[in-house]
Specification:
Helix content: 25-40%
Number of helices: 8
Radius of gyration: 20 Å
Strand content: 15-25%
Number of domains: 1
Structural class: alpha+beta
């Protein structure tokens, strides 16, 4: 059995009922998130994410495979929402971070990818002195029931995100862009150049036909498109955070 760990995870293994877990402390940030300037988000997260972060789309091939992410920093390895190992108070924490150290992972058996995903855990978080999530009879705790619900709902939500990105790409609405900014002399005068991002080209929406527009509305994509476009103003908030941290 081979398990491909998701982004940010080191080595994941199937979670077993008799395993005990070392959870992160409240507001503690996983190591990978401390060093990430972008975090994947899901379909239902667009509205809460758009209040705090810029939402952009990234791609492995720049053509068909896209994914929405929340931008956390202006340079590689920078999370401006993390300080002293804690997430900034009063800011929405993406579900990708909240589910850690658990995940749903693809499994390959004899090099054949299985249809269903397994609930897995970061191996380093299995601990003899950790927290048990099942009792001696195998009954789940309330905490595990909440976690299992989060994992299942999040995975289903990711599928909706993939469908949304596929439709946006198919309709030709995504375009590459670069974020360029520069501090004033009073704030140091540093310049920033962030690439590898895509956004919805708002001007192309009006050229869609009636069936395409209806599909965007029916699947709840159009509202997320405008949440994404409005969130672009949050790049200014990132600059303010950057300036505050530099000071």
């Amino acid at each position: 059995m081979q398990i491909a760990p998701p982004f940010g995870y080191q080595e994941v293994v199937p979670f077993l009922k008799n395993q005990q877990v070392r959870f992160l402390a409240p507001a503690e940030v996983p190591d990978f998130a401390r060093r990430s300037n972008a975090i994947p988000i899901s379909h239902t997260e667009f509205q809460p994410v758009a209040r705090d972060y810029p939402i952009v789309f990234t791609s492995g091939d720049g053509k068909t495979a896209f994914a929405p992410v929340a931008v956390l920093g202006l340079t590689t390895g920078e999370n401006l929402f993390c300080a002293d190992g804690r997430w900034a108070p009063g800011v929405y924490v993406p579900a990708y971070v909240r589910r850690y150290p658990f995940c749903m992972a693809k499994v390959n058996v004899n090099k054949v990818e299985q249809k269903d995903r397994l609930i897995c855990i970061e191996k380093s978080h299995i601990a003899e002195q950790g927290e048990a999530l099942f009792d001696d009879k195998g009954a789940p705790s309330a905490k595990w029931q909440d976690l299992e619900r989060l994992l299942g709902e999040y995975e289903a939500d990711l599928e909706r995100s993939r469908e949304m990105c596929s439709i946006l790409a198919d309709y030709g609405l995504l375009e590459p862009f670069t974020m360029q900014a520069k501090f004033t002399k009073e704030k140091g005068g540093d310049a920033f150049h962030l690439t590898g991002m895509h956004r919805v080209a708002e001007g192309k929406i009006e050229h869609l036909n009636a069936a395409q527009l209806k599909n965007l509305v029916k699947k709840g994509i159009l509202s997320r498109v405008y949440a994404h476009l409005l969130s672009m103003d949050n790049f200014a908030k990132l600059l303010d955070r950057k300036a505050t941290r530099a000071a």
